[in-house]
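Narrative progress, year one. The postdoctoral researcher (J.K.) led the effort to move from monomer predictions toward full complexes, under supervision of the PI. The following entry was the first complex the group processed end to end, covering 993 residues in total.
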Amino acid sequence: MSQIAVEKTYDTLAMINGDFKGKDIVSFDQFSADDVRRIFALAGHMKQLVLGKEPCQLLAGQLVSLLFFEPSSRTFGSFAAAVKRLGGQTLEIQNPETVSSVNKGETFEDTIRVFEAYSDAIVLRHPRPGAALRAAESAEFVPVLNAGDGNNEHPSQTVLDLYTLYERFGRLDNLTGVMAGDALNSRTIHSLMRGLSLFENNTVYLLSPEKLRLKREDLNMFRSRNITIHEITSERDIPRDCQYWYWTRIQKERFGSLTEYNEMVAQRFTVTPALLAEYASQEMILMDPLPRIGTIDTEVDKDHRAVYLRSQVRNGLYTRMALLALVLGRA
Amino acid sequence: MSQIAVEKTYDTLAMINGDFKGKDIVSFDQFSADDVRRIFALAGHMKQLVLGKEPCQLLAGQLVSLLFFEPSSRTFGSFAAAVKRLGGQTLEIQNPETVSSVNKGETFEDTIRVFEAYSDAIVLRHPRPGAALRAAESAEFVPVLNAGDGNNEHPSQTVLDLYTLYERFGRLDNLTGVMAGDALNSRTIHSLMRGLSLFENNTVYLLSPEKLRLKREDLNMFRSRNITIHEITSERDIPRDCQYWYWTRIQKERFGSLTEYNEMVAQRFTVTPALLAEYASQEMILMDPLPRIGTIDTEVDKDHRAVYLRSQVRNGLYTRMALLALVLGRA
Amino acid sequence: MSQIAVEKTYDTLAMINGDFKGKDIVSFDQFSADDVRRIFALAGHMKQLVLGKEPCQLLAGQLVSLLFFEPSSRTFGSFAAAVKRLGGQTLEIQNPETVSSVNKGETFEDTIRVFEAYSDAIVLRHPRPGAALRAAESAEFVPVLNAGDGNNEHPSQTVLDLYTLYERFGRLDNLTGVMAGDALNSRTIHSLMRGLSLFENNTVYLLSPEKLRLKREDLNMFRSRNITIHEITSERDIPRDCQYWYWTRIQKERFGSLTEYNEMVAQRFTVTPALLAEYASQEMILMDPLPRIGTIDTEVDKDHRAVYLRSQVRNGLYTRMALLALVLGRA
């Protein structure tokens, strides 16, 4: 007996296999290529719905808890907007200090179980890797959506990145791109490669400082998963026919010391109009999961290929609307 | 002239006497047994409404300010969900630092009067005992609901505790239970006994360390109010036929020194599967106002008698929905 | 291509000239006298709508971002209530620390562009003068409303002050009033004089300590803009036939040292029942933009002429409802 709109129907971390209703979304690995296509089809509808400017009541009467144990204004805003654009309502805990019961010593599991009693789904952001899985296991009745758990997973980010490629090129196979930044540690780069590995014949040029190359075991894993990887350490090695550039920042929190971080930052790559002019085709798109910090010169913003502050951000809204509708059984 | 949905109709702290509309809810003592039954009848409807999963518009167009001058994620979430499940909207001030006018030196009374101008009711959480009464006296037009003012009152907590007993046993008289914890200081224990004192023939076993026994004046007061009290200091004295166990934590803020607190914590009682097996009947329920900190072993969670993270939390939602609908004249 | 309800149609800071739809509201100087009258007419409707207690769906399906980079509970509550009273929804970032991307080093411009992707309008509060203009220039698609940018502008405050005068006297010309406080630095005093300068034949008595008189250039500017100004330094010089008193606090942040501030505070003027009895007519109104700190004795609150916690606060709601409806093309 539960007050929720849709009851959880399965083992946490089970594959979606076409049936999203009532399932936790903890890891991108729960999706098959068909699942991704299903999300994309619905995201396309969501986009039309938002552009059509008609109020939507798909989630009318639905209440979604947004539990953000660390601040993340973009992801928070995107999920909150997704719920509200669909006519649903949110329970918002944005600030870890206001999760008072936690301050009083309550366990994370209890907090999750309290909020599942109030709402139809929980969107969780947490600094600790594995927190989303723990939340999903704690919630008895309502689905949990991982909105980023530390350096572990952020499946809706991967979905929106893939959707941005799909929307532009009409496919997710036979694409060649550059991913630049901290190939060793970057969650977004690793996740996007895992996403692409569901599809055929993708080639990635990994551009990073020598010291931030992918671990050999990760390199082998991705190669075994269908991705052709070329490691490069200079912009001069970017092939001119890439369909996309995916630029990411070097994150301070990944390094043991500030010295080490500063050394890496000194070697980072920044997209400028000149770099685009020399190495990029007219048909490519330039992506960034944001925030861009040292990644892309603002001079580039007006370029028609710069989608990071345009369709990429908006696609986060559309794909999250799709995910919520699917999980809540309202697609 | 006011923009509100329902105007305050009476003197603050007056008895409800069957007429909730437009009244402040500052203290549980405003309720008669019939008032409590009225809330319960409506809470039952609210439960059906939520379980029925149909969007509800009972509070459509109503705006409820949630002014939380101290964090309390559970109570905040419960009231916010109650408003939204009824189709209403909230003005949320969750963080005392964002009550900027207060920081600038504005009086509490002025803040209340500003927010009553924006909304149809105010739900107030405040660390200072008596704050709810001051707010109720300051608000000229809209009802104020006390969501906890320090160690003073938290009437909706008492209502949900009583409702949990009522829902399970179909009555609030002729019940025997244990209340464990800090009998001297615990607001929830005192309030629940006051609630039960509205009904006939209730017996409470107060389990606490010797030093945390009820004050003699409180003991006499409760006895004069119809409650049979037995003070016990060991689990061995729990009778096997109790209908409920109500376990509460020992709160650090009630003690002058950490030494004193630690001494009491060392003597506290914790529910374990073994304790339940030995002293509890199969028909009883195990309650906790939460957060549970040292009160109940997580091993107990799956026991069918453990209602603290199940019906007790949910009943908070249903009873607050009922209270809001009654006070706003939409029952 | 945008998902928004109404697209921006013009150059930032352009005059409104009767056409609010899709325009940024950065400065009060964008309004003509006719624009102000248009807002007032609609604010009157909004008041009836709120008093009529019927749910309104004028902004149904509309999502308004409230980006508050500094806390301001009154302005936040007023804008949030305005959106929700019209049936719209909000994206709320109340606490600067939760604008995490900013903490991570994201530029203000990027943050604005991210939130415009999620919503149909942005209401911005920011401590830095000029921030609203920067936001308006950054937002490509949705209108930005300035809810206060430091000591620079707070146009909706000016509108509500003017509306309070208009509602009481049926006109904005031929009014005589006192404005008391820090004439040198006060944003609200300067803005209200600019507002009145759109209309004919207004006279203002500026009551301030000698050291806080208006700058000579500002004095000349206001005189050239149609306002008759008398500078006075004692309550004894208040004429008995003023239609309004507009009292403002002396703000600490305007002074270089605490000594200087304390010296000025020692010379400030406070409204008491005695002062009203001696110098105020029965027909005048007493206004304060709030918070009142040292400006008005609480003894005065019950006086029928004291509108600061009554119609003045409520008029903030009605005029902001009007502004939002106009800018979003739903008037």
